[in-house]
Amino acid sequence: MRPLWKGTIGFGLVTIPVKLFSATQDSELDLDMLDGKDQAHILFQRINADTGKEVPFERIVKAFDLDGKYVVLEDADFKNAAVEKSDVILIKDFIKEAEVEAKYYEKPYYLAPDQGGARAYALLREALKKSGKVGVASFVMRTKEHPAVLQPDGDVLILNQMRFAEELRKPDELDLPKVQKIAPAEMKLAMQLIDQGAGSFDISKYKDEYTAALMKAIKAKAKRKGKAKKETGMKVVHKKPSTDLMAALKASLEGKTKTKKAS
Description:
- The structure is a single chain.
- By secondary structure, this protein is of the alpha+beta class.
- Among the domains are: 5-27 and 82-165, Ku70, Chain: A, Domain 2 (Beta Barrel), CATH 2.40.290.10; 184-196 and 208-252, no CATH class.
- Helix content is 25%, strand content 27%.
- It has 5 helices and 9 strands; from the N terminus they run ββββαββαβββααα.
- The protein has helices spanning 75-81, 118-131, 184-196, 209-223, 245-262; strands at 5-11, 14-22, 62-66, 69-73, 88-96, 105-113, 133-141, 144-153, 156-162.
- The strands form 2 sheets. It has a 7-stranded mixed barrel. Strands 3-4 form a two-stranded antiparallel ribbon.
- Helix 3 runs parallel beside helix 5 (245-262).
- The two termini are 42 Å apart.
- The mean pLDDT is 84.
């Protein structure tokens, strides 16, 4: 893997040189857009909405719609507003991992020690494990500042890039049910259903079945030299909302019990 970034972790007065690597890769297929007539690649043009003519890239500017009027921004405006570029992952607080709400997690990166940083890297990693805490930090990637959580995972330190609070929309406009009085019998059955399904988290049990089915269909179609086959690899099932909650809960519990006995 190639490092995306090099810098240091600021841990009190300790400085740890590190390299940052992407910890993720897309599972979806990279599809090209072609003309169905001759399979030529599709080109995208930048068209002036008023004249209908193509606009050369060097003439395109960026602007912000402020109260119905566009304010055009120049390179100097972006430079003046940019955060000071830093190569330090600065740890500001140590907290319990459970205190971080999952909705703020955005993207994980692997951190590896750079030259001369192995001993301090191992010290921070093992200290975090022993304390049961994670480090809340900030870092700059491509001139944009991000909050982050630094946590150990086996032998590696993971830097989880976070979202700022203002980047999350508030659910105020959603039509959500108000607090209702739940029937004790329904709550009891719901809790039994949850208890029966309790287990440990294993991400390997969850596969990208759609992408796998699509790739299988692509390979099969290539063998047939492009002829379509009238079948689908993944069926979409639409379930009707439960109108009788008690009946649905009881049926769910019975199904879970039968599954456990069969296994």
